[in-house]
Amino acid sequence: MKFAVIVFPGSNCDRDMYHASKDALGEEADLVWYADANLASYDAILLPGGFSYGDYLRTGAIASTSTIVSQLKIQADKGVPILGVCNGFQILLESGLLPGAMLKNKNLKFMCRFEQLMVENNHTIFTTAYGEKEVISLPIAHGEGNYYCDPTALASLKANNQIVFSYVNNPNGSVADIAGIVNERGNVLGMMPHPERAVEALLGCDDGLKLFKSMLENWREAYVAGA
Amino acid sequence: MKKVKIHITLKEGVLDPQGKAVQGSLNTLGYEAVQKVRVGKYMELYVEDSANIEQQIEDMCVKLLANPVIEDYHYTVEEGVTQ
Fold first, then answer.
1. CB within 10 Å: which end of chain A, N or C, has fewer?
2. How far from the centroid of its chain's Cα atoms is residue A25's Cα?
3. B15–A173: do the CB atoms touch at under 8 Å?
4. What is the pTM of this model?
């Protein structure tokens, strides 16, 4: 399986994402500079965390105007798995690939620590290796991770089972304790916690590895087993 | 040249943690009359004059300057000062 890790000016979790897919998962991965990217040949696209364009204006806003977003939309329409973590999630929101927006954390603090999450939906291509309602631990590291959407959008997220991860102890004030959501089709996942920073015991926890394993297993099932 | 003044604020009903913190501080300073604070952004754009300038500003606000999911915006277009 071949992963593209998109690097924006200001990305800083790109190496972690590369390490997770290349070393921990053992698959192919490329770090791809956003301006030079040709995403057509990749099996999955990873949008890492960081501070794209210094988070000027709003988190993810400037990155969402870059030309690569039109490619992301094409790949999303094809059903290619796209994972956006932290700033990557913010870029997906600002691009309109996922519904909602980010506000500053309720307590106005940048928070960097492990948080417990509940796997709300283990039937997505990103979460089949997790158990139903499994409680996992992943690091968060953000100042603007307070997910907001209006009541209509929330009802739609709930009705379509698009809420994938929720916080056990909501640290940032997110609506309905939301930590991660997928699009309606289920191939675009955005989440604030960092699975790529928890892929081996040496990092303190390997609960994030199952997410990458899920992507691999589901890709194999779709494209290799059936071939 | 036109000078466009754009004000962007969080929508009513959207929690404004910065506003709450500022209100708390004002109350601490003794300004207890302050019941609510909303913190927003102010931008000035100097734009070449054109017939559809209002529509262009509207588009800029929706596409980039404001996030319509959480923010409201309003703007005024004035004669720009020659720099």
1. C
2. 16
3. yes
4. 0.94
